[in-house]
Design goal:
This protein is mainly β and 472 residues long. The protein folds into two domains: 222 residues, Jelly Rolls, CATH 2.60.120; 215 residues, Beta-galactosidase, Chain A, domain 5, CATH 2.70.98. 1% of the residues lie in helices and 48% in strands. It contains one helix and 38 strands. The strands form eight sheets. Strands 2, 4, 5, 7, 12, 15, 16 and 18 form an eight-stranded antiparallel sheet that branches. The protein has an eight-stranded antiparallel sheet with strand order 28-29-30-31-38-35-34-33, with no helix packed on it. 44% of the residues are buried.
Length: 472
């Protein structure tokens, strides 16, 4: 199996970490108890407490009344309008969560003039200046056909999540500057833009307004949310003043070590699941779909999945190293610690067994299929388990097939342990505040139960075979 290991120069380090120090200031949250923070909101905008997207129907939300979420739902008859904040801003750090419906797009216009694209780009291999997270193009009708759009910047990698899942963006923006006569003395800049925890733009100079700008460049302007291109929702909108030291260069590793996955690729390493929780017997698997996952062999636990680049092996191989590797993409964590996926329950309310003591657990390693993909094997409670986690061909997530022999009727499989589990439709569940989906066929009957500390668990009786998908 071919593993491409690439040492890259410092400019490429920005795939994994910011080259800018942007120290936090006190944040000002835009209230979403009503629409009073915005100028003349159109009737496609509303405030809600919860909502769900439909993975089959474009531009479709099911909305629950309440407060805390700003929702836009344009229709064919009412195409909607953009939303502008009453307050105007100059140099800022903007953070917010957004969620798009299937096939939808929208945009965040800084000062009403510079658009950061929002789009359903789930599974897209090659992002463009019109894809999710892009700095949208400028436009000039006088230019030749095919060249009217220019100066757009695609995201460095596609780290977009599925429709109906919350995505987080953090933007450090430096407004254009003007002298006393109103002449522009410096251009606006995107000092950094992080999408879902990954830096996708670094120190981009904006030579002018992007297409669809509200007007001429100025020192201060409203935050503008595009409202005429599809169903979109926002929450946790926070704006703070950009610190004076925001453009001071940060520390850079001189020679980071990245592992690419142009073909099906795997690497063994330690994995830090969350701070102070480490898997010491983990395997990460990636492929050309730009999707990857990590698996803990000591417990048979699927740890995490991500879209984007494969592995930063710098912590493991630079100097003496500490044995750990890190994902280069946007991480969706499926657990906060490695725990057994299989347990024996006398009743469906019995406490889940989280460690291997008295379970007969024994890892049997893995075998490779005909496409160089691992299938993990272990014994537990006398059953022989084969756990085949595979990257979906469309790049939208993972499939998982569990095959069990010598399985007893009181064995159950742990599908999720989370703060929240919401059943969206028959066979489709949203996990942990819309972090990812689990999807099952009609024959599989998962059970939602309450665990210690008020947590929710999704479990299913383990027969000879279990199939499901993880969409993120």
């Amino acid at each position: 199996m071919k593993i491409n290991i690439k040492k890259v120069c410092s400019i490429a380090l920005a795939l994994a970490s910011s080259t800018l120090f942007v120290y936090g200031q006190q944040k000002t949250a835009i209230s979403l108890t009503d629409l009073s923070a915005f100028k003349n909101p159109g009737n496609t905008w509303s405030i809600a407490s919860n909502l769900f997207a439909d993975l089959e129907k474009p531009n479709n939300f099911k909305v629950e009344k309440g407060t805390g979420i700003l929702v836009n739902q344009p229709t064919a008859k009412n195409t909607g309008s953009d939303l502008y904040t009453v307050e105007e801003f100059g140099d800022v750090i903007l953070e917010l969560d957004y969620l798009v419906a299937k096939g939808a797009n929208s945009g965040i216009y800084l000062q009403g003039n510079y658009e950061i694209q929002i789009e359903d780009s789930w599974g897209l291999l090659v992002p463009t200046a019109a894809s999710n997270g892009a700095i949208y193009s400028r436009w000039d009708d006088a230019r030749p056909e095919g060249e009217k759009g220019f100066d757009g910047f695609a995201a460095r990698q596609n780290v977009s999540r599925a429709p109906g899942l919350w995505q987080h963006v953090k933007i450090a923006f430096q407004a254009p500057k003007f002298d006393a006569s109103g002449n522009k003395t410096s251009n606006a800049r995107i000092l950094s833009l992080e999408l879902n925890g990954v830096l996708i733009h670094d120190n981009i100079e904006l030579l002018g307004v992007t297409r669809g700008a509200a007007g001429k460049e100025k020192a201060k302007g409203s935050l503008r949310l595009q409202g005429d291109h599809g169903a979109v929702a926002f929450r946790n909108i926070q704006i703070s003043e950009l610190p004076a030291n925001a453009n001071r260069p940060g520390r850079q590793d001189a020679d980071p070590i990245y592992i690419e996955a142009p073909v099906n690729t795997m690497i063994r390493s330690f994995i830090d699941v969350v701070p102070n929780v480490r898997s010491v017997h983990a395997i990460s698997v990636g492929g050309p779909q730009q999707v990857a996952f990590s698996y803990d062999l000591d417990n048979g636990t699927l740890l995490q999945g991500w879209h984007g680049g494969f592995i930063d092996a710098t912590p493991m191989w630079d100097g003496r190293g500490n044995g750990t590797s890190k994902p280069l993409g946007n991480v969706t964590r499926f657990t906060k610690k490695p725990v057994l996926s299989v347990s024996k329950l006398a009743s469906q309310q019995d406490k889940w067994v989280v460690d291997t003591v008295n379970t007969g657990f024994r890892t049997k390693g893995y075998v490779m299929d005909d496409q160089e993909r691992p299938e993990f094997k272990y014994n537990i409670y006398g059953a022989n388990i084969t756990d085949a986690v595979k990257i979906m061909a469309n790049g939208q997530g993972l499939t998982r097939e569990i095959n069990a022999t010598n399985s007893s009727k009181d064995l159950y499989f742990l599908l999720a342990n989370a703060d929240s589990i919401e059943e969206v439709s028959k066979g489709l569940y949203l996990i942990d505040d819309k972090s990812y989906y689990l999807q099952f066929d009609a024959q599989t009957k998962p059970i939602i139960r309450t665990a210690e500390g008020g947590k929710k668990e999704l479990i299913v009786e383990l027969g000879s075979k279990l199939n499901y998908s993880i969409l993120f």
